[in-house]
Design brief:
PG_Glycine_Bridge_Synth, single chain, 8-stranded mixed β-sheet, about 30% strand, PEP-CTERM_FemAB-rel, globular, FemAB family protein, acyltransferase activity, transferring groups other than amino-acyl groups, about 35% helix, Aminopeptidase, 2 domains, 7-stranded mixed β-sheet
């Protein structure tokens, strides 16, 4: 038998320790990778939220062929789970070995394991009705981008472009301003803000930046975006109460498209939204076709449930919206670090 026809070895799964560079090399080569697969993401979550990072790899003949990043989330309010990827909208198994990698995650002993995207274990309950993802190519220039936006939303963008709004981009120098805006935005939606340290860790260790829109010198909308393999991921974005009337969010996302093109990006990933919500309608109005996201969850008992649309959280959401912003910003990080 020739060397080229030699049989390939079996896949062996193990937990990786201090092999971040080797894992990231595998991630960077894989066409289905997202920023959330990078070890820097899970490390940022560990550093910013205090939740333990674990990395499972599948190897064949000493080479990584599959990978599962995990965040071990512990919370008195929301329970315990292994999540891939923690605090992300995507992740899950990358590459081969989905069944042995999933089995290895179960063997760790957490009551719940959640996989967000990627190939899913055959016997695990799968949810493809709750979340929708929105991705499309970027146009070649601003004029073409405007034409790619449906007529009604295009008119709003044109009005935003004609307004007296300033756009700035940067990194850590804009972090405090961005956090203030994001904290107000999520408080208004009834959800707790993530710890400030998570945002800073992402900015310091990943390909990420901030784009902020100002009116009369005051920031009214801001977004922290991640970048990987030619795709921009606007991930943590929001606006103040004044942003709606100023159309600052419209200006922000259109400016981000141009900014991403200048960085060499070819695709815009608008993230996920829950089906049937205003956020999903907003993204569709921008010309993004929605695609169902497939998540899987295994649990040894009652499954962990952190969806804010769950009726049992309705009172909590209504109450949170009414909290003074300083109080919400103080309490939010303590609560949100357990969401995963």
């Amino acid at each position: 038998m020739s060397a080229s026809a030699a049989p390939r070895g079996n896949v062996v799964v193990r937990e990786a320790h201090e092999e971040d560079g080797r894992i990231d090399a595998f991630v960077s080569r894989h066409p289905d990778a997202t920023p959330f697969h990078l070890t820097a993401w899970t490390r940022a979550v560990e550093r910013g939220c205090g939740q333990h990072a674990r990395f499972m790899i599948a190897e064949r003949d000493g080479e990584i062929v599959g990978y599962l990043p995990l965040t071990h989330v512990r919370s008195r309010l929301f329970g315990e789970a292994l999540v891939s990827c923690g605090f992300a909208v995507g992740g899950g198994v990358l590459g081969e070995g989905v069944e042995p990698l999933a089995a290895a995650a179960r063997a760790i002993g957490c009551p719940t394991v959640e996989l967000r995207g990627g190939p899913l274990p055959a016997e695990w309950p799968c949810d493809e009705d709750t979340y929708i993802g929105f991705v499309r190519p970027l146009a070649k220039d601003d004029d073409a981008e405007l034409l790619a936006i449906p007529r009604k939303q295009r008119a709003e963008v044109r009005k935003a472009l004609a307004s007296n709004l300033e756009v700035v981009t940067g990194g850590l120098t804009l972090a405090d301003e961005h956090y203030r805006i994001y904290a107000e935005s999520v408080r208004n939606l009834g959800t707790p803000v993530f710890p400030r340290a998570l945002f800073r860790a992402a900015l310091e260790t990943m390909d990420a930046d901030i784009l902020t829109v100002r009116h009369d010198g005051r920031a009214v909308a801001s977004v922290l975006s991640l970048y990987l393999n030619g795709t921009v991921y606007p991930y943590w974005g929001g606006g103040t109460e004044a942003a709606r009337g100023l159309r600052a969010n419209d200006r922000m996302y259109f400016a981000l498209m141009a900014h991403a093109r200048a960085r060499g990006c070819t695709h815009f990933d608008f993230g996920r939204s829950k089906a049937g919500t205003g956020a999903a309608a907003f993204k569709k109005n921008w010309g993004f076709p929605g695609m169902p996201l497939r998540y899987a969850k295994w649990s040894s008992g009652p499954a962990r449930e952190v969806n804010p649309l769950n009726p049992k959280y309705a009172l909590m959401v209504r109450t949170w919206k009414k909290l003074p912003l300083p109080v919400a910003s103080l309490l939010g990080p303590w609560i949100s670090r357990g969401l995963g």
